[in-house]
Input
Amino acid sequence: MHVIAIDDEFDAWRAAALDALAQKLTPESVDWRTSEVEPALFNDSAPSANGGDAPQLRVSRELASLLKDAAHFRDVRRWNFLYRVLWRWAQGDRSVASAADEDGARLYKMAKAVRRAQHDMIAYVRFRQRDASLGAPEYVAWYEPDHDVLAWGAAHFAARMGRSTWLIATPDGAAMFDGERLQLERRRALASEHATDVPDAAEALWMTYYRSIFNPARLNESALEQHMPVRFWKGLPEGALIPKLVSDARGGARRVAQAPSVGALGGKAVQVDAHEAQPERDAPTSLDTCRRCDLWRNATQAVHGAGPSDARIMLLGEQPGDQEDLKGEPFVGPAGQLLQDAMQRAGLPREHVYLTNAVKHFKWEPRGKRRLHKTPAQQEVEACSYWLEQELHDVGAKVIVTLGATALTALLGRRATLSAHVGRVVPFRDKLIVATYHPSYALRQNDEAAREKTVAAIVAALELASSLKP
Output
């Protein structure tokens, strides 16, 4: 086993890795260790571990970028992993740079996490201005990055804060700028008090402004925590306000919104008829204002059906997905693309059908920074039947292709099972129903043969629907 000790920096690993490649050391025979030595600036002619010039190895620009970013991922075994990637590339295995490869997927994931940490550092570092009588630095900040992005973030601020002097302290070190030169100090246990116990007169104005723009009636806690993760709150001045503002919203402020502050303003009282002040809401005038269930609270918008009103065939899905919710159109995400391919195979042009969903708002649950689909409850399907009935009345479709179990039960009731109806033609009022799988079911199949079988079933259902003459 060859033990290679390096400084915990990409440039040192790069030089040592090229030297190890020149010696034909396999990844399994090398144990990478980090040592406390002065870091050297990275350049294309960095010295190798044995003191000579580093051997040359041409890699793609994309792989070089991935390696540099992944080097900042916090993992004690990252140097071993990066060397395995570089070794495979040197052996001619170009698949290692693909996200479809096991090592490639891990490399992309590490690089993505580091890039996200870089973005977060720009977004959540908050400088506080010190009293001028205390001397340099003028501004200080405390930040706890998820990965080793202090040097990157410090360079970003050095380029944008002119000749101001500042300090960013972290649990693993600090970055200092004296107006001309940036210096990094890699010492642990730097106390957060260096940055957080500094009074800043401007913060009182900022806190007043933040309170005034907070509208409890429009609070979406999931979206708040997604765009401003809780772990960063302690470093933000407004972070101390957020828990109470959220608590007040839960306790009733959401119902009156900013009415107390608005009511305190001067003005003339206007008499309003009670009936006009409290309009009937059981029958909403439009889908965009529908409040028949609570799904609208966490959705971006309602997603209307799309297609010609005289279409002979209606495709009925379950609910909008993440991309549909953002764009406001049905079947534009991955499942929609698979459905489009199935329609082409069946010879059914998209512009000749009407596309819609049984539920019009996206129901989801947070999973990290992603919004994952969650199956609508029966009461939500029933609440949305108001709008489905309107579409059945307004669209002249005589054949309805139901995609998935939720769409089928929305028409036939909760006793209908998809397995008992797939491939069959079922009379429904003056129309015919053809049941098949939802395209997302095919996307969830891990086996290629199983996926193709599901897609073939969808294509067969579309062909059957096209051949029917009700």
Notes: The chain has a mean pLDDT of 84. The chain has four domains: 2-120, 125-196, 202-256, 287-467. The radius of gyration is 30 Å.
